[in-house]
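the two lines:
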Amino acid sequence: MALSREQIAQRVAQELKDGYYVNLGIGIPTLVANYVPKDIEVMLQSENGLLGMGQFPTEDEIDADLINAGKQTVTMANGASIFDSAESFAMIRGGHVDLTVLGAFEVDVNGNIASYMIPGKLIKGMGGAMDLVAGADNIIVTMTHASKHGVSKLLSNCSLPLTGKGCIKKVLTDLAFIEIKEGKFHLLERAPGVSVEEIIKLTEGELVVTGDVPEMKL
Amino acid sequence: MAGFDKVVSSYEEAMAGLTDDMTIIAGGFGLCGIPENLISEIKRKGTNGLTLVSNNCGVDDFGLGVLLPNRQIKKIVASYVGENAEFERQMMAGELEVELTPQGTLAEKMRAGGAGIPAFFTATGVGTPVAEGKEERTFNGRDYILEEAIIGDFAIVKAWKADRYGNLVFRKTARNFNPLAATAGKITVVEVEEIVEVGELDPDHIHTPGIYVNRVIQGTFEKRIEQRTTRPTDQQEAKGE
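prediction for all of em together
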């Protein structure tokens, strides 16, 4: 079975380490916050200028001056700090964020990522995504492996305008956990009940499969 | 003698000198921390041909979006747009020029503009459409593109508190681009929720020193929320609501 959005978030959360500063993108990445292991501490960075993002506010706690990068009302965690946008991107571009999780339309075997524009259709902009992929060393891309029509999103060459070049090393899809190195995809784990053959069929770029590929533990 | 007193008493006075075809840098992220009344004043004034530099462009009836129906904006430099239908229509019809700029690059362009740095190298955007036509250089084996600073004829800023000398304090994430915008305007206009007497703000807690600020006005704010997201209270949760 393909992973649900929540399950993708759950698996990403296993990559969190105690003391990590983490930037979570909009969509599935945001859900990762719900699965932070109880025995570790992480601090969430929101690029609009908040380090230490807390949970959503109760109706009484809503504050128009306190939002996250998805423009949702939020609260501050204990030990939070607030800063301007240049400071926020100094953290990101200076490589101070330990883990970045973000979504994508396509990735390819050279670690290129396309996530911000579909010419003629969707032209909303990159927001902070180009800064995040250029500045972070440790990035996990979360996405569906293929479109509803079975068209692979893991390609030999991205077809859409790029958000970043050669910057992606890990991809978690609804079917597989994949590492990108030496110009190839490498299958690390498969979703429970999903066969290697199925993953190969839906991966357009070259995929290396070594030995028995373990199932993800959720 | 006004000395360092930057306080003006009307929005008309606050935006005096703004003329057609000028460049305006605006603070704010989404609808959070936007100079909403200064924007309304630009609409009222009817100034045209403007270049707006702002992370976003508001929504249809609030924020910078209110400048769209009368076609006051010629060009927008932003990182994320299209939260409004009229914006999309004008962009698709080629009536509105849009320069999409990565958010960190946008912030740095303002910071550099205000700090007298004409341009800077960044890895952000290398190998993407953003890099087209820009100088590329390699430092320590990594590629960077040259991005130019931005200076505005006007900067419009929203702060929480100001003293009469224009020292500013921002509140929570309404700070965002505002302190950067404040440095990068030839004329920087700030609207605030409260003006206090000089000496009331702790010098250690001032976010933007008054040297960057030309005019201060006190306003009242709607502070519209774009995405109202909440969690249930513990009591609601216990009742299963």
